[in-house]
């Protein structure tokens, strides 16, 4: 880039000899400007380049698909070496009968909308309208937050109620199971006489407080022990009775 320091030498920077003419010096300066920064290219040189480009375009013939098809020189000529046996050949339609295709580039005519500024979305929003919109939005957000909190707490309460219901059902099932065990257990030894209550003289389960499991099981164990002692006493009496009967029979046989 062109610099303007203390060691600036225009001839060295532009790459020309010191005995160059002023016109060549200006041309070298323009080329240096074009190489370094196209935006610093002089307007006069730009206008001259545009005029040169327009002259070049005018000298060149405009060739488009439509002109290529409509030129008589480009139409298909009959081949003199070919011999057609059919003398009733219908001539083909001329290319000029077909509609001409539009040019590739359409001229752009500026419309009134091009000169107008785009609409501003906030031009009709006043301070009052903005505050109303802001408060409405804040209210909606607050109501949504309250609804979410209420739904969360209702969900927690519902889950807690379900847990409580489950505990109550579990306790009821345990009580029913205890009563079933109490009334349906068979006698120890499997004699099939009846349930535990019938075999050992237990009281009915409704006379005991089944909510206190420790007291219920304590009473049950005491009753079982008492029943086992009675059963052992009965077995001892039966053994003594059998022994006395055998002794009497033996005495009778000895007398005979």
TrEMBL record:
Family matches, as InterPro entries: DnaJ_domain (IPR001623), J_dom_sf (IPR036869)
Segments for region (Disordered): 49-122
Segments forming domain J: 9-82
Low complexity bias spans: 58-70
Biased composition (Polar residues): 71-98
Domain of life of the native organism: Eukaryota
Protein name per UniProt: J domain-containing protein
Protein source organism: Rhizoclosmatium globosum
């Amino acid at each position: 880039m062109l610099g303007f320091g203390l060691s600036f030498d225009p001839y060295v920077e532009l790459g020309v000899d010191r005995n160059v003419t002023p016109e060549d010096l200006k041309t070298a300066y323009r080329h240096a400007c074009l190489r370094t920064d196209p935006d610093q290219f002089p307007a006069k040189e730009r206008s001259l380049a545009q005029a040169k480009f327009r002259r070049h375009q005018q000298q060149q013939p405009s060739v488009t698909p439509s002109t290529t098809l409509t030129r008589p020189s480009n139409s298909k000529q009959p081949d003199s070496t070919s011999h057609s046996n059919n003398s009733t050949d219908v001539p083909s339609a001329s290319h000029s009968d077909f509609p001409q295709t539009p040019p590739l580039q359409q001229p752009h005519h500026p419309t009134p909308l091009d000169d107008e500024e785009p609409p501003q979305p906030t031009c009709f929003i006043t301070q009052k309208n903005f505050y109303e919109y802001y408060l409405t939005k804040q209210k909606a957000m607050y109501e949504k937050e309250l609804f979410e909190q209420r739904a969360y707490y209702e969900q927690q309460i519902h889950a807690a109620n379900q847990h409580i219901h489950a505990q109550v059902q579990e306790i009821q099932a345990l009580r029913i199971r205890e009563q079933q065990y109490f009334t349906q257990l068979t006698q120890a030894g499997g004699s099939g006489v009846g349930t535990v209550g019938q075999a050992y003289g237990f009281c009915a389960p409704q006379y005991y407080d089944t909510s206190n499991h420790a007291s219920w099981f304590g009473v049950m164990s005491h009753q079982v022990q008492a029943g086992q002692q009675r059963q052992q006493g009965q077995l001892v009496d039966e053994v003594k009775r059998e022994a006395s009967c055998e002794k009497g029979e033996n005495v009778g046989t000895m007398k005979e």
